[in-house]
Amino acid sequence: MKKTGMISLLLLLLLTTKAAAVVPYSDEMTDLAAIVQAQDLRVENWEVMIREDLAREEAKQVIADLKNSHKVTTDKNENRVKYSFVSRQKTDGITEQFNVVIPRDEQHSARFIGVLKGTYWSEQVKASYLKKAPGMKAEFFSESTQKFTWLKAKNSGIINNDYFLQNVTEILGVQHVLTQHENNANSVHEKIVYGYTPLWKEKISLNNTPMNLQIAVKEDAKGNPAYIIGTPILIHEY
To answer: Which pLDDT belongs to residue 47?
Structure first.
């Protein structure tokens, strides 16, 4: 049996039996996709972002290098100059882009951001992602980076929110679980869950407690839930 098949089978067994064992994953994006797909959820959007701060001269060299292989657009305002680069090479299911943001205030460092994203997830996309992601980091970034990963998943039927959240926390061995309920009538979120899994490197500290998982549960007008899952925290509007 192929390795991917073994992992999928193990996930299904864990979800069926609600076992508390921790599965040894290696990449946040593939971990999250495997978990939601094992529960018959469809990945609608996903994104992996790497970012780091650069000296202004380093940022200028990055801009010069990227111009050779990417399409560039420039956006300026009174506070900063933003260079956006999109790869000229097409990869099915994956968009690669970079942003270099240089503040007008020369006392501040520049910020370099790399993004891989897509609107669906499949075995082909997974294979392409696992080839592209390490190469992007090795070619353009140092070790002093922050990585943010998120996906949105849903299905056409009703899935019990508590059942889904319990499965995720058990599979990932989540600790320090904190649940926030939205009471605002104008809020689109029903519930937000925070926690920490030792399986992933990235983390933040909240009142001296490590956190690296955030799950937002959002329902549409028909009551069908969507799950937006991020690590170490969701940094986008969703």
So the answer is: 97
User: What pLDDT is recorded for position 181?
Assistant: 79
Cα 138 from Cα 129, distance rounded (Å): 14
Residue ranges per domain, the chain?
3-45+150-231
Contact 230, 154 (CB under 8 A): no
Q: How far is CA 21 from CA 106, 183, 202, in A?
A: 50, 34, 21
* Helix count and strand count (H, E) for the chain: 5, 12
Query: Other C-beta atoms within 10 Å of 186: how many?
Result: 5
Three-class DSSP category at 175: strand
Position 73 pLDDT exceeds 60? yes
Higher pLDDT, 144 or 160: 144
Cα separation, 233 vs 229, whole angstroms: 8
| E-strand stretches of the chain | 42-54, 70-76, 80-87, 95-103, 110-118, 146-154, 175-181, 189-196, 204-206, 209-211, 213-219, 225-231
| pLDDT bucket at 88, cuts 50 / 70 / 90 | confident
200: tokens are: 């992933």
Q: Is the pLDDT of residue 14 over 50?
A: no
Pairing, β 42-54 against β 225-231 = unpaired
Read off the pTM. Answer: 0.82
What is the C-alpha R_g of the chain?
19
The whole-angstrom separation of Cα 197 and Cα 205 is 13
Q: What angle do CA 197, 131, 195 make, to 5 degrees?
A: 10
Q: Which of 101, 66, 102, 72 is nearest to 84 (CA)?
A: 72
